[in-house]
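The pair is quoted verbatim underneath.

:::
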Amino acid sequence: MVTIINYGLGNIQAFYHIYTQLNLPVKIASSVHDLSEAKKIILPGVGSFDWAMNKLNNSGMRHTLDQLVLEKKIPVLGVCIGMQMLAKSSEEGELPGLNWIDGVVKRFDEQSLSSKNPLPHMGWNSVNPVTNHSLLTKLQDPQFYFLHSYYFLPSVIQQKVASTYYGVEFTSVVVRDHIMGVQFHPEKSHRWGIQLLKNFAKL
């Protein structure tokens, strides 16, 4: 059962629609009770870091999610802000992150970006695997939709699974064992996003 965390942020229905179209079992979780059958977890997110962390912390699901991910080793996929929330902290806010992956979230240095690379980074871009991982299987020259001004910087370089170039190279897919994050929006990325979400469900 793929369980999509509904803490008030993210394109919940878009994820749900993709999985129903794929005929894969899916559920939306808005409470601890809804997490009981979770075999895979998607943590979506849009907006700012502190806002997202506050919403999740106040959802009543935070403690149970920590248990499911850190103790029971349930696979989780963080998307956009959901990926950034996996880190220890973010330059965008003051609250601590989930700290499920050792790393921090940094703002793009606008001085290092050209006029062709304004912030936010918005639109389609290539995702280039730097190591083999089953999350990215069957993706031929993938293009994904991005919308962000911050990026995940993992402390362990081997946890960078794919990168993207936007004036500078940044980590667009990060993986620590069963904990995964993507900076782009697979739910908005047509066939590549559908394949990635299918891959995640079958891990």
In short: The two ends are 12 Å apart (CA to CA).
